[in-house]
Design goal:
Order of helices and strands: HHHEEHE
Structural class: alpha+beta
Strand order of the largest sheet: 2-1-3
Strand content: 15-25%
């Protein structure tokens, strides 16, 4: 079997992060949820700790923080088990520890959901 390598972007197996071209090629489209969320909070003069504290956490949500390039789980609520949240945290952790420029990673805190449907965790006060 002959493989047409011009169809693929070269990937270094020892490098765990992708450049913008590789990322867009591999994951074209499915990870667009952060864009409307960013627009929502920018229109409200950004999000702060009080906003995060006021989000009603429900099952299948987790709150995490990146501080001094280390990932911390602050709170996790299960719906059945924690496997999806653990995979979510690990998915964040790998690029964090393998980032080419660790100094460029800002301290941040965030809440995420591992629900299959966005409407399971959204509401008027926390739309994304």
């Amino acid at each position: 079997m002959v493989v047409n390598t011009s169809l693929y972007l070269p990937v270094n197996p020892r490098q765990y992060s992708y450049n913008d071209t590789q990322y867009e090629s591999f994951f074209h489209g499915p990870f667009k949820d952060p864009v409307p969320a960013q627009s929502f909070w920018k229109a409200r003069h950004d999000i702060n700790r009080t906003d995060l504290d006021n989000i009603q956490m429900v099952n299948s949500m987790a709150r995490a923080a990146i501080y001094n390039r280390k990932l911390y789980t602050i709170r996790a609520l299960a719906r059945g088990d924690h496997r999806r949240k653990l995979l979510g945290i690990l998915t964040i952790h790998l690029p964090l520890i393998t980032a080419p420029d660790l100094a460029a990673i800002p301290n941040t805190e965030f809440i995420f959901s591992v629900e299959d449907k966005l409407e399971h965790v959204t509401g008027i006060d926390h739309p994304f």
